[in-house]
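The protein record filed here.
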Amino acid sequence: MSMARSFTRRWFVIAAVGLMAGCREAPKAAVPPPPPVKVGSVVEKDVPIYSEWVGTLVGYVNAQIRSRVSGYLVSQNYKEGSLVKTGDLLFQVDPRPFQNSVDQSSAKLRQAESQVTQARSQVSANRAQVEQASAAVVQAEAEVKRAEATQRKTELDVSRYTPLAQRGSVSQQELDDAVQNNLANLASVAAAKANLLNAQANVTRARASLEKAQADVETAQADVAAVRATLAEAQLNLGYTKVISPINGIAGFRIANIGDLVGPSDAALLTTVSQVDPIYVQFPISEQLSLKVLRRWETDPRAPRTLELELLLADGSVFSQRGKAELLDRQVDVSTGTALVKSVFSNPGNVLRPGQYAKVRGVTDLKKNALLVPQRAVVDQQGLFIVAVVKPDDTVDLRPVKVGERVGSQWIISEGLKAGERIVVEGVEKARAGEKVKPVPAS
């Protein structure tokens, strides 16, 4: 009985001790240290803003090659897709019909020139006749003067002998002889005047013949000029049978085949030669941007008329040469609301070709005192952008921000941050609002 009581007492004591032990407080769990995060500072500086457009490459000059005369194509003298120079022979049109025209015109020219020579000879002969007839007029005038002088002398003799014969101082025979001499001299004067009129008529006829001969010379010279023009046109057409490149550039595939009938019509395109160094890159800009550019030019005449550009190729590489946007189209496309811009790029080695697509990038604005943070520091939560700001006491403030343009790997923050504030750039998922973190400077 005593043993049972002793066992019961011991169990009770043990149970009581166990119960008391169970009623004691459990030890508190250890507080974890603040999580390490990498932090950086909000940077304030002037930032150039880049814009990108999708551009199309076009030849600086695209020369459509056509034959300027109608004929059959007899040869192709260039390698398709190769570089050709100004004056290089591309195609040959059958020259034989045009050579015949040149030969015929040359023969007509020689004939017309011989007619000019004959007409000039006739002018020389007629001029000699005019001189001879003029000399005869001078001689006839002298004869008239001599005859008139002689007639006046005999007329004076008649006047003097008439009263003397009435008084008997001279005989009637002497008076009659004087009268007869005077009548003879009057006839001589009339004959001399007739000869003078005939000589003058000869001069008139000779001068008319001279004028006609001179007119014949002018007609023959006009015929020569007309034939020379015909010959020049024939020679020009003969030259056009050689289809040459008007520019330095890349010659495309041929469109016409040997033996085809070609000509100057729009449908008879032979090939195209494109100048690719330099080369144009054209791209559309919005109507708003074009207005901005035009207003800048209007308000500031000294504002640059060109924009330096980079070219991003289809493989993601940046073209080695920088270009300049130089030309703005005269109109805005009513269907797209954009205006075309042409930029010029040097193209050493002819790497760029017409028809390629590429991105064009250029600085269109400058943000003064912009606040920059790394893009990885910004968390997008269903359109709400949040940045984890580390306060001076190392606690986290999850702050909503308003973002602007992206600049490389950084983001412009327009609202929500201040310059110099510390932000979490790595380990944002570890940051909790109001909790402490262990900031580690980011590299």
In short: Residues 61-94+242-270 form a domain with the OB fold (Dihydrolipoamide Acetyltransferase, E2P) fold (CATH 2.40.50.100).
